[in-house]
Every structure is written in structure tokens, then in C-alpha cells.
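TEACHING EXERCISE
Course module: macromolecular assemblies
Task: Read the component lines below, then compare them to the predicted structure of the full complex.
Student: A.B.
Group: 4
Components provided:
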Amino acid sequence: MSETGIKKNSQNFGILWQRYGTFGILFLLLVVLAIAQPGAIFNSSAVPQMLKQSAVNILLACGEFFAILIAGIDLSVGAVCGLSGMVAAELMVSAHMPWVPACIIGVLCGTFFGFLNGLLVNRTGLHPFIITLGTQSIFFGVMLVVSHSANIYGFPASFSSMINASLFDFFPISAIIALLVAVVLWFFTTKTKAGRNTYALGGNKEAAWYSGINVPLHTLIVFIISGTCAGIAGIVLMGRLNCADPVAGTGYDTYAIAAAIIGGTSFMGGKGKIPGVVIGGFIIGIINYGMTALMIDSSYQKIMMGALIIISVAIDHFVSVSTNEK
Amino acid sequence: MEPLIKMVGITKVFPGVKALNNISLDIMPGEVHILLGENGAGKSTLMKILSGVYQPTLGKIIIGGKEYKSLTTKDSYDEGVAIIYQELSVINELSILENLFVGKLPTVKKCGISVVDYKTMEEKAAAMLQKVGVHRPLKTFVEDLTMPEKQQVEIAKALVSDAKIIIMDEPTTSLTTAETDNLFALIRKLKSENKGIVYISHKMDEIKKIGDRVTVLKDGTYVGTRRVDEVTVDELVTMMVGREIKGTYFGNPDVDLTKQPILFEAKNITRSDGRCRNISFQLHKGEILGFAGLVGAGRTETMEAIFGAHPKIKGQVFLNGRELHITSPYSAIKQGLGMVTENRRETGIIDNFNVKQNISMVPYLKQSSAGGIGGFLDGRQEVRWAEEQKANLHIKCTGINQMVVDLSGGNQQKVILGKWLAANTEVIIFDEPTKGIDIGSKSEIYQLMRKLANEGKGVLMISSELTELLSVCDRIAVFREGEIRMIFNSAEASEEKIVKTSTGEY
Ligand SMILES: Nc1ncnc2c1ncn2[C@@H]1O[C@H](COP(=O)(O)OP(=O)(O)OP(=O)(O)O)[C@@H](O)[C@H]1O
Ligand SMILES: [Mg+2]
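Instructor-supplied answer key:
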């Protein structure tokens, strides 16, 4: 085959990958799982289980998506997730607060931590990588202080049964919450001016500023969204585990970034869509579910997840290089 | 004599457009070969094929006796081709020195190990900067340079590698006469060294000054090649546009517009960084006010300050007698001000947006609430804005959904004009508005500016092209070293007076 022929093919692959890559991975995973362990897929509790496992990832990934969209990153979503859950847990268990206000305060804590991230990014002018690397450690430390490094459990029964319930015995409430959040954010990105402006920020901050977009304000909003999503994820995670575990949130930063990238968000900023990110989060959930079903040790899950991040970013890079070289 | 390069039967197809159709071109040693054509004619595409950025769909390229079906950027560099890109390729985060040698650091062997040869680098760089006329320390970061200086660094970058063939894609869009003369002196020297030069420009007077042969493209097809001394500019214009362009005066000298009420006024604008001091001017209804000056005289800096992009200023701004309080470009837009910025790639286009999204950005913001974050998108309205401007400015694209980075340079410029026009802005500051725009569209844009002024909108215009200022503006303010030194009426203004004022001889 001639050289230009190869180029053509790699270009076509590029276009296919950009359009259907995320679906391809999802499909591949399901096929692999169906062959390796048919029982894990062809059974009535499989889908609800997968959804349950995915809810937290979807929530975190949706927040992370915005941070990456503006060519930044949020490394603190895992810590915020843990801390918000912990705050809500303390309020319910130690302060005997009813679960609804406790959870709302927990989520608002997430909002506040996101606000702090955004404020620091704006005030210092440093890259979000540095800021959120720092706050990740700070938030984690604060959580250890709040919880005295111990698990907190004994939530009101009404809370546990609510968050672990399923609609029609099929759709877990946690997954419904995640999807509702995703729908709201999808609306935000596709139908509001603020959403459109956020994409502009990811494309070219300088030009965005000269065109009248309030860059600091939008940066702040992005981190507030990310923090809020992490806060909601914190409540959902705590409910699923039925306890607030100080280390529960660790590792979720990586998953969130992985889900956003696998879901088609470009690290260069300015490109990506919420539905893709939701599927990205779902993929992470399925990997977790599948590994558990195949009784693979969770350490291998980490290895697999890391490899998947590198592979999908590498393909993405290769694709954008080949489609640009016209 | 053998040509340095022969391009034969080059065809290039992009999705939805045939950018080039069977084009042939040869470049002789010691010649300046001008490439001429309207916006979107295919000039940059042809040159990017030569520099290895694009691969041709059909055709071949013969360099130094070797025949290529297509070139990679490395092939091209190894064959001695250097290019000055239309959209500058300098990197803001690097110093001038590093920019000049990106990807081709000279090395010396020390104890058997190749290390970067900083000494040679610095010597070569200093000499080259001297030649192109950049007076800045080598370690200066490029982001601290003005737009014209960046363009000069881009030129230096192409020349420093000692190439045999140098492609210059609109190298003088930001330069004023003095810097352009500098470049032309350099080009003459290269010619005498038997190098081949391809020169693209929409400034027609440059053709006669520097060109030997000229090849005209139209809509991706070859029109013809002529010797420059055997053809008139008018003939060339007819070849490229297919009709005659009336290059006339667009003002109305009989009316004294300064008797009209004042529309816009700036009083004692001073920037805290000292780039402009005590700038005051008045714009009357119906008037177009121009700003001339050398590179670095502070015209752009003043306008950016007024527009709120660099909000640390002292002074006052009035629109229709009411004082404006501008703290950011957003607040400027809300109060009726707009600014077409001079650096298309950095402050103009949003590259992940299509034509429609780029154009609708400003009108959306103008109508938005809550600091620009309130409000919803309106798909139909967006299409209307974009289609209107596409027709108004004759933007050449496959449709308003085409990505803006896939448009030719001049058409990207039109998109930027479009976004301010779509917002129905009261006062527009045009900073090099016709940068990269072909001669036919230029006169259309001048007419458009005149129409805006007649409709009672404010038009302020910065330009490095004196002929342009003289033919469009009613009055011209001349900057020197951060201050306005003189304001001429169109009747009394002349190139000579303006140049003398801007250099301080007057
Ligand atoms: N990467 C691309 N993808 C799709 N179309 C492209 C791409 N690059 C250029 N084109 C199209 O090819 C045509 C020629 O563009 P080109 O940039 O060569 O024009 P040009 O002669 O340099 O014009 P200008 O004077 O405005 O710089 C245009 O119609 C443009 O839209
Ligand atoms: Mg061009």
C-alpha cells in the first residue's frame, strides 16, 4: 500500500475514533466481559449493579469535565468527595441532624471547596494543576481531622434506604441522581450563554477576554460546578458504602480524569461533551464491576485503569496529529 | 538557469473545497516571485505544501533535481526551505533567542558529547535581529513584544536558518513603512546571494517595489505568470479579481465634520505602565478618525486601555456626552464599545469554534445579563447573525458551520469584523482592520466603515498603511512615543507630514 494510502486510513480511523471511540470501548468491554464471565452480564441484577458502581464516577467525571474543558484540571475532586461525605456524616451521626439538611450542607461544602479552588486559581494566576494538587492534600488533611481518621457509620435508616433504593426495582436512585446532574449540566453546556463561553475559554482565553467574556468569573463557575459535583458524589458514595470512610475518596481523582478523557474530552481544552463523559464514567463503573465479577484483585483494577488512561490519551493524540496532517 | 523549485500540477482537496486545481509554479535563484490572489485563492495552501504542512492530493514537487510526491516538514527544511507563516508561529512562552532556533538548535562537540552551542546561537541571533530591526534583548519573552515585533521575530526566525528558498506569507501586515523598508533591504541582499523568495502580500505597492515575477491565482486555479516590469498593477488587479477596483478617496472633504456634535471623546488617558500618556481626542458624528505612528508608538496600547482590556488607566471616556465606566472588555461592550484587535490568532478567533459561534459571541454578550453569564442560546438568532455577516462581508467558507481555523487568513479576519458588526456596536475601534484582506474586499470594507460613520456610529481606525488612512479617514492623529503629537485634517494630511511627525522630524 502506498504511503498516502496509509495516511488516508489513519485519517479515517481518526474520524471514526473521534466520533465513536467511547462507544467502541464500552462495547469492547461488554463483549470481553460477556465472554469471560457470561453470568456477570446475562443476569437481571447486572445492569443495576453496573449503574450503581458508575454513579459516583459519573458525578465526579462531569465536574472534572469542566475543569479539563478550560484547559485546566481538578485534582481535588476525590478529596472534596470524601470531605463532603464526612461533613454530612458527622452532622447526621454526631449532631443528630435530619438527613436532608445534613446532605444539603454536605453538598454545599463541596460547592464551597470548589469556590476556594477557583478563587485561588484566579487570585494567584497559577495553573489549576498546582492549586488543586495543594488543595487536594489540604482537604484530605481536614477530613482526617474532622473524622479523627475513623470510619463514621450508623446513619438514619431513612437515609440509607433512600440512597440505596431503586426505581421499579431496576434504576438505582444513586444512578438517577447522577443522570439528573448530567442532564442539567448538558443543558448548561449546550443551551446557555455561560456554557458556550466556557468552551470559548478552553479554545483561547486571551481571545475570549478580548471578546468580552469574563474569564475569571467563568473559571470560578467551573470550579464551583466541579466542587458541587464532587459534593453530591460524596453523599452518594457514603450512602452506597453505608459509612463515611476517610480513604473512600482516594483514587477517584484518577478515575474522574480517566472517565472525562475516555469520554472524549480533550486535554488541550475546548473540546468534549457531557454525554460522552457520562459514558466515560459508565465505562469506569463497568471495569470495576467486571473486575469484581471476575474476582480480580482491586490492585489490578488500578493497573488496568492507569493503562486505559494512557492508551486513550495516546490514541487521542495520535488521532489529532493524523487528522491535522492533511 | 535551473529553477530552485518546480511545483507541477499541484491539486489539493479539503473536505468540501478544492483549494488548488492543477497549479504549477517555479522559483528561480535570485528572484522574488510574488504570489497574488484574492482571499481564499489558495496562496497559503500552496506554500504550506512546499513547507510540508499539507500533502498535495495530486502533483509533484522537484527540488534540487529530486522529485517528491509530497514533502514532510523535515524534507522541506532539509532541502533548504524556510517559511514565514501568515499566522505567526512564534511561541509566546519562549524567549526571542529560543524562538529563532526552535527545533534546530546548533550544537558543538564538547568531550565527545553534543551540547547546545549558545555562543554561536547568540551571535547569529543578535546579528539577525539587528538586520530586521528588533531592538530588544535576546532573552526577552516573545509574549512581551508588540504584534509588529512578533512579526519581525517571525521573519528573523526564517532567515536565521540560512535557507535557499524563503517563503514570506504576508510578512508586512503589521509593519509600517520603516520596518518594511528594512525587510526589503534584507530581501535584496538575499537576492544577491542567489536565494529564491516567494512573496505573498495584499499590499499592491509592494509588488512593484520588490517583485521580479508575479503569479496570479484565482479560486484555486492558475491565471498566469508575468514579469513585474511588463505589467501594471491595474492589470494584475483585473487578473486576480476579474474586474476593476476603484481605489479612491472614501471620505467627504466638503463637509466640515468637526462642526458636528461630539460622539465619542477620550480625555487624558494615561496607562499606569506608561505606554501612553495624556491621550485626548474627540470623534464627531459621521467622522472617521485615524491613528498613525511607528511600531511601539502606543496606538494599540491606548485603544486597549480605553476598551478595558488593560484596565489600569487614568482618564475619562465619554459617549454622547455621558461618561463611561469601563473596567473590562465586557463592560465596554455593554456600554457600546467594540474593538477589532490586531492579532488575529491570539486575541481574535476562538479556534475551537465555527464561523457561526465566533460571530455570535459578541452579540450574545451584548444582550446578556449578570456579567455575561446570564441568558440562553438562541439557535435561529445565531444563524441569522452569522448569515447576515457572511453575506455582508462576503466571507468565503463552505458554510457558517465550517471551523474558523479552516478559513483562509483574510476570511478569518472578516469573521472577526463580523462579530463586532453583528453586535451593532456604537463605537468600533478598528486595529488594522484590513490586515490580510485582499484589494477588492478592502475597498468594500472602507465603504462599510464609511456607511457606519454616516449612520452615526463611531469609527476609530489604527492602521500601519498610510495610504489606507489617507483614503479613509477624515482626520488622522499621529502618535509618537506614547503621545499624540498632531492631528491632521484630511485636506492638510500627507504621507510626508505623517511620517515626519511620527519620527519626530516635524
Ligand atoms: N485546513 C483546511 N481545511 C479545510 N479547508 C481549508 C483548509 N485550509 C484552507 N482551506 C480552504 O482552502 C482555500 C484556500 O485557502 P488559503 O488559505 O490557501 O487562501 P489564501 O490564498 O492564502 O487566502 P488569504 O489571502 O485570505 O490568506 C480556502 O477556501 C480555505 O477555506
Ligand atoms: Mg493566506
